[in-house]
Amino acid sequence: MERAHSLLLNEEACSQLGEHQRAEFVFEWLRFLKKLLPAADRVDVKKNQKCLVEQLTGILIGSPGPPTRWLLAHCLALLYRVGDSLTSSHTVDRCNDIIRSKDDSPSYLPTRLAAIACLGALYEQLGRLLVNTFKETLANLLKAIKSAESQGRYEIMLSVEKILRGLGVSAVPCHRDIYKATRACLTDRSMAVRCAAAKVATAYRFPPSS
């Protein structure tokens, strides 16, 4: 697994592995990247950022499993925080497009869940840098939750909590819509969804009273 310990994913080494080994290789690379990015030279990160975004996006659309998608989301957000954040809105748009997709096949679900996780991480890490896109993103997530299965509702609630924490008082205009969705999820048949909704209920931030 030493070949997975590099800033960029070693695509040549990865392509020579079987399906399960490839998944392990990608996971190990993401684990390494999570530790590397905070300590990496910012100039080096910016120089490789375009390629890194492409590689991470490739993992996103490759139907990653739960542990991989959470690591992926963290690394993608960390990359924009450490490197150049200017193109982060493009990744937000890409994730929103994935969530809007009409593809309801089981094989597409992991990609949709990964996109939801990435949105939460991006807003949590970048906060108000993405303030111009958050209304559209929240509207998209709250629309998707109405037809989502329990796993999707769970990921959306986790993502909404992170958006609230990242944006703070800037999210106030959407509090009412979030409250409606959260209230419904607090009585969801899935305990995981109820727990995630409870976290959302504690994440509201209000402007200081005058």
Automatic annotation (TrEMBL):
GO biological process entries: endocytosis; intracellular protein localization; retrograde transport, endosome to Golgi
Signal peptide span: none
GO cellular component, one term: Golgi apparatus
SUPFAM superfamilies found in the cross-reference section: ARM repeat
Protein name, per record: HEAT repeat protein
